[in-house]
Design a protein that fits this description.
heterodimer; A: mainly beta; seven-stranded mixed beta sheet; four-stranded antiparallel beta sheet; 11 strands; 49% strand; B: mainly beta; six-stranded mixed beta sheet; five-stranded antiparallel beta sheet
Amino acid sequence: GAGVSQSPSNKVTEKGKDVELRCDPISGHTALYWYRQSLGQGLEFLIYFQGNSAPDKSGLPSDRFSAERTGGSVSTLTIQRTQQEDSAVYLCASSLAPIQGNEQFFGPGTRLTVL
Amino acid sequence: GQQLNQSPQSMFIQEGEDVSMNCTSSSIFNTWLWYKQEPGEGPVLLIALYKAGELTSNGRLTAQFGITRKDSFLNISASIPSDVGIYFCAGHTIPNTGNQFYFGTGTSLTVIP
């Protein structure tokens, strides 16, 4: 597609449930990033993929958070046993391979609310 | 992780005024990026800077890549109500491994008609 897409746009879940968030990067972009943005806050880095591998998972806040990427394209971010503090907007971004491109393009985000 | 210092944190200005915000880092970057985020949307790229000293304009926006490669500024001239949003700077580097993008904490801009 023309841009980065994310689904769902909004997700409301109950505490303790698992959720899956999806990101479709721009076609041809090999690098993919997940960020979390709490209300009125900046961007908190979660994880970075180059192709299907994740050389940097340093931002994942706990072992309840995991992400995978298959086929060098779509990525899913999974949050298990959700807690209220997980409520935030989850943003995905993609860019060309590190040597090729230094610009990152964002999707519209998924707003997660944990009740 | 690495953090960029962005200032000011927020600005309230009258329509027609000029705006200036900046970003500093203790590390060198090879690219500086400026984004704008409106409510309910993801950040949108405004300007990308690739060389130290580079000055680039995009309409009423002007940004510069600091000569030390550790800072950048963004100016908005003759502000209008639709300039409202949060502006983020980002620095890009090419490490041996891992994440390459580092973001500022954002500048919230309010334009009063």
